Amino acid sequence: MKNILLVINIVLLVLVGYLYYLHFHTDGAKAGEHKTSVNNNSTDVKSKVAYIDLDSLQDNYGYYQKLKADFEHKQESANDQLAALQKKYQNRAMQLQQKAATMTQKEQASAMQEINKMQQELQERKQKVDNDLYNENSKMKEDILTRIESFLKTYNKDGKYSYIFSYEPGFMFYKDSTLNITPDVISGLNKLDSEKIK
User: Fold this and answer.
1) CB 26 within 8 A of CB 35
2) Residue 10: exposed, middle, or buried by beta-carbon count in 10 A (0-12, 13-18, 19+)?
3) Contact 9, 168 (CB under 8 A)
4) CA distance linking residue 120 with residue 68, whole number of Å
5) Distance (Å, whole) CA 198 – CA 188
6) pLDDT tens digit string along 33-46?
7) Which regions in the chain score pLDDT beneath 50?
8) Is 41 exposed, middle or buried (0-12, 13-18, 19+ CB in 10 A)?
């Protein structure tokens, strides 16, 4: 989720910079007129911005919780498989090491080859598991982001908001809680996805 949050934060930063530019930009003789216009329209600008608290969304969006639990289960299962392979490798290596003193040179070479092969198989399996989990996690993030974006298009079809930001602690220093639409978004998403959670 960190990559999605980073992209969203960059977009937010650009949009905040643009709003800042619009607010403080002065154009020669029209400076006073522009400031008055901005001040008179500050209510309009304020009403066109809303935010979603991502932590709250993640904690309360049922479909996300289901996907997260499924992913964690797959991750745990994959780690158990890797641990079993690691144990098998270690046991076999220990067996061969204990017999090493009584082995011929040819048997030692064969044992070393077997250990190297097992180690390589273990590394390849670990790499495959890591890649599979990474792809699964990326797919999950993309799915969630697509669902949120799709919902927000419907939610904002009346054009009430020009911008809907994501909020993360440490990114914004101040937020007006009246602009928080997180409960609406959570409720709407949960209603849309209720059949997928069952």
Assistant:
1) yes
2) exposed
3) yes
4) 31
5) 17
6) 434 334 444 444 44
7) 26-46
8) exposed
